Amino acid sequence: MSSYNESLETTLIVTSTRGHSEIKTGAVNVPIYLSSTFHQESFDDFGPYDYSRSGNPTREALEKTIAELEGGTRGLAFASGIAAISSAFMLLSSGDHIVITKDVYGGTFRFVTEVLPRFGIEHTFADFTNIEAITNAIQPNTKLIYIETPSNPCLGITDIAAVVELAKSSDCLTFLDNTFMTPIYQRPLDLGVDIVLHSATKFLSGHSDIIAGLAVTKEEDLGNRLAFIQNSFGAILGAQDSFSLIQGIKTLSVRFEKSAQSAQKVANYLNGHNLVEKVFFPGLSTHPGYETHNKQSSSAGAVLSFRLPNKSIAKAFIENVKIPVFAVSLGGVESILSYPAQMSHAAMPKAEREKRGITDGLLRFSVGLENVDDLIADFAQALEVASKQNQKVGI
Ligand SMILES: *Cc1c(COP(=O)(O)O)cnc(C)c1O
C-alpha cells in the first residue's frame, strides 16, 4: 500500500488495476492466465508459479485485493462461498467443538450438522444476539466461535467486539461470514476476528454471473495453514471467474451505496404498510440490533426481510410483483425476492426454521439498482392485490 492512507473505494480500483503482476504491457485489467502449468526457466530454481491449483496470477490478483480490502494478511479464493466456509472449518480437528449462531446460512447449517459430526467435530447453536447465551455454550473443547452478522434471513445482529473478547479469553478462534456487509461497510478483522468469509457470489461480484467464495485471515500463520488446506482440498476459483470477480469488485462501492439507500426507503415503506407484520432491517431504529450494528458497521446494507401473515398472501404477493426476480441468492444488480422457507433454508427442518423466525409468510428482499420509486410502486400494487385475495379467503 502507499504511504498515505487510501480509502477503501480507492483500494478497490488501485489494487485491482495496478497491484497485479502485469508489468509488461501496462494493461489496466489483469490478464486471465488460462494455464494449468508454468514453464520453469531454470532446472533447480523454480519461478513463483508451478501449477494453478497452488497458485495462479489472476487468482492471486483477486486474493491480494480482498486481503487489502479486509485489512488482512492473506486472501484466498474458492470455488464457492460454501467451499471457503467448509475449507476454513477444516482447520479444526476431531474432538473439537464449535459454538455457532443459530441464524446461520442454510448451507453452513447443513455442513456443520451433517458433515462435520462424521469427522468428530461437534457443535452447539446459540442465540448470537445474546452474549450470555454464547458464553453458556462454550465447552472446554470449544475451538471456534462462528459468527454471521447481520444474519440470514432475519438480520439478527451480533456484537463482534464482545464475541472476540469472549473468544480470546476462552482460547478460541473466531470466523465471521461478512457476505451481507462486505468490507465496504464492515471490517471484522479490525475488531479482532481471525478469519472473514464471503460468498462472493453476492455483492462482491454483484452481477449474478458467477459462484465464488473468499476467505481472509488476520494473521500470517493462520493464512499459511488455510492456504495449505486450499491446496490440499483443491476447491479453488478458476482464472476466468477470478477475473469476473475482480471486475465486480471495482464497482462495489457505487453499486452497494445506491442499493443500500434504496433498501432504507423500501424498509421504511414496508414498515408503514398494514399488511406487513414485521420488517427485519438493521437500518430501522426499532430493530433490536440497531445500536450494536451502527457501532460496528457503516451502513444497514441492502437486504431486508418482511413477514406477511401467511403463505397464501406471500404467494399472491410474489405472483403479482413485476420488477424483482423471484430467485435464491442476493446482492445482484437486479432486485431479488426470495422465499427462505423453500429456498435458502429448505435444508433446515420446519421446526428448526420456525424457531429461527423463518415462518411461512417470510420473504427476503435484496435491493438492486432499479429506481426505488418504481420498486415501491410495484410493491404497493402487489400488496394491494394480495390483501384483496386475503379478504376473499377470509369470507
Ligand atoms: C450465499 C451465501 C453463502 C454460500 O455461498 P455460495 O457462494 O452460494 O456457496 C454463505 N453465506 C451467506 C451469508 C450467503 O448468503
Q: Can you describe this structure?
A:
The chain is α/β, with parallel strands linked by helices and 395 residues long. The protein folds into 2 domains: 56-250, 3-Layer(aba) Sandwich (Aspartate Aminotransferase, domain 2); 253-392, Alpha-Beta Complex (Aspartate Aminotransferase, domain 1), CATH 3.90.1150.10. It has 14 helices and 12 strands. It has a 7-stranded mixed sheet with strand order 1-7-6-5-4-2-3, sandwiched between helices. The longest helix has 23 residues, at 372-394. The termini are far apart. The structure holds pyridoxal-5'-phosphate. Pyridoxal-5'-phosphate binds at residues 80-82, 105, 107, 148, 152, 177, 179, 199, 201-202, 211, 213.
Layout: helices, strands, pairs:
Elements: H1 8-18, H2 57-70, E1 74-78, H3 81-89, E2 97-101, H4 106-115, E3 122-126, H5 131-137, E4 142-148, H6 160-169, E5 173-177, H7 182-185, E6 195-199, E7 213-217, H8 220-233, H9 239-250, H10 252-271, E8 278-280, H11 290-296, E9 303-307, H12 311-320, E10 325-326, E11 336-338, H13 350-355, E12 362-366, H14 372-394
Helix pairs in contact: 1-2, 1-9, 2-9, 12-14
The chain binds pyridoxal-5'-phosphate.
Brief summary of the model shown:
With 395 residues, the protein is of the alpha/beta class.
Feature tags:
395 residues; alpha/beta; Aspartate Aminotransferase, domain 2; Aspartate Aminotransferase, domain 1; 2 domains; seven-stranded mixed β-sheet; five-stranded mixed β-sheet; 14% strand; globular; binds pyridoxal-5'-phosphate
